[in-house]
């Protein structure tokens, strides 16, 4: 009996050591889908809703053309029309502007208690100077102007995407505006003069204000509200005015 007990203790200890070793030194293997599931879901949702927008917009625009006794467009023609281009890129434009401003403004501005803000005092890991270690990205190891550019690549990319989207929105809105002018029997407007049309700026500002509101909402609401398990929220038991980044 004593021998059996001793063997059981030895086996139990061995099993516990194996579990400890596995937890410490062996990383759990996750599938590619699991490791990229967040981006996959949002990209899929993007294409689904973009297709839904195109199909419904196609029906709406052709109905408008029919009411004006103008020729209907094929679906391919619609995708190249000002109606679709304007509606699509005015949304892209506001999103990229929001993200560019958010990335830049969160460098120096603070909101006490918000999960979206850096701490009120002290340095954060994102503030430290990059170290050219073997595992660091290539621009960090390269150094010089390449590192300088890479250090601001996120905000610069969002800014570039905003400018491209703004240009496409402007072009699409101008095209769509002139189609409406023709429907009403009015003269078309030159592209150089369209920048003064309130229609374009109405489309622009109605999208910008909604993005600024959504950012302000998550900045302020994360002070008081929680979502267990989400990295966009503070831990549930964190005090309201404790700022975590």
Automatic annotation (TrEMBL):
The chain crosses the membrane at residues 32-55, 149-171. Keywords: Membrane, Transmembrane, Transmembrane helix. The keyword Membrane applies. This is Uncharacterized protein. It comes from Albibacterium bauzanense.
């Amino acid at each position: 009996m004593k021998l059996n007990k001793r063997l059981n203790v030895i086996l139990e200890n061995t099993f516990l050591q194996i579990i400890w070793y596995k937890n410490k030194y062996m990383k759990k293997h996750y599938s590619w889908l699991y490791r990229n599931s967040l981006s996959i879901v949002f990209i899929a949702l993007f294409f689904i809703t973009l297709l839904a927008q195109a199909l419904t917009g196609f029906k709406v625009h052709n109905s408008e053309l029919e009411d004006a006794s103008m020729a209907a467009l094929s679906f391919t023609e619609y995708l190249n029309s000002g109606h679709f281009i304007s509606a699509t890129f005015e949304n892209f434009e506001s999103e990229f502007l929001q993200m560019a401003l958010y990335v830049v403004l969160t460098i120096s501005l603070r909101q006490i208690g918000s999960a979206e803000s850096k701490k009120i005092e002290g340095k954060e890991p994102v503030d430290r100077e990059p170290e050219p270690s073997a595992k660091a990205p290539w621009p960090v190891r390269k150094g010089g102007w390449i590192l300088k550019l890479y250090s601001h690549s996120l905000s610069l990319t969002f800014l570039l995407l905003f400018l491209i989207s703004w240009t496409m929105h402007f072009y699409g809105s101008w095209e769509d505006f002139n189609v409406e002018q023709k429907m009403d029997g009015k003269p078309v407007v030159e592209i150089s003069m369209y920048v003064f049309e309130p229609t374009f700026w109405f489309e622009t500002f109605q999208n910008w204000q909604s993005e600024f509101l959504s950012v302000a909402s998550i900045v302020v609401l994360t002070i008081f509200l929680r979502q267990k398990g989400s990295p966009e929220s503070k831990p549930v038991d964190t005090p309201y005015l404790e700022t975590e980044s």
